[in-house]
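User: My instructor asked us to take a sequence, write out its structure as tokens, and then describe one feature of it. I'm not sure where to start. Here is the sequence I was given:
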Amino acid sequence: MSEHALTCRGVTKRFGSLVAVDGVDLAVSPGARHALIGPNGAGKSTLFNVVAGTVRATSGRVLLEGRDVTARGDAWRARAGVAKTFQHSSLFGSLSVADNVAIAAQRLTGDGMRLWRPARRCRDVDRLVEEQLALAGLGARARHPVRELSHGERRQLELAVALATRPRLLLLDEPTAGMSPAESARFAELVETLPGELTILLIEHDLDVVFRLADRVSVLHLGRILAEGDPAAVRADERVQQAYLGAGAGEELFRAVGS
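Assistant: Let's start with the prediction itself. The structure tokens for your sequence are:
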């Protein structure tokens, strides 16, 4: 098996004359909590979508556990153990919390869509749903319609849906966007309880969350990797501070984080 769960080699993505991602090299170790940060327009979401397979790289290679998946789409990568949460909700609002997780769990059990009866009635699916909702802190909300959930609870449910496929690589795209500080802290606590063997790559604007969760941070700026290292080294990097808010303001921001 490869020493890296995810490898990007010279990944570039162009949209016409715009170079959104420019020759990115990235290596994510198995079991890592690896954060990808950067100012708006840095190319983070584009790189994330290239990794997920929803966007095809213009050039370069993407490898999962050493296997070249550059030409594979998102459905194939999902079957290979990649799961992703999205910035915008992809939940079925009219269904219950449990049924949303059950639909994802069916992919793992191979039951497929059972239109003639509720999906969760399959015993294997039932067990998976119960496990993931407990892990996400939503066990008591299993029978509630998704539309009754708070924003933070919906984010928790999206995580449960992703985990129901038993991924080896979990991509979290702005998981705390729109959350209150208390909700963000609660979500971070939830992520901290996830199995250590699960590799996580996350994009996140909330630097408190980033520096709490990540053991390695890559900073993207103008489509390129500007800096990479452990959270303390990245926090102290003047280039990173300037890329975010300009000299002085960036330093103040990064000093505040984790203080």
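For the description part of your assignment, you could build on this observation: Strands lie at 6-15, 18-28, 33-37, 59-64, 67-68, 82-85, 169-173, 199-203, 216-221, 224-229. Try explaining in your own words what that tells you about the chain.
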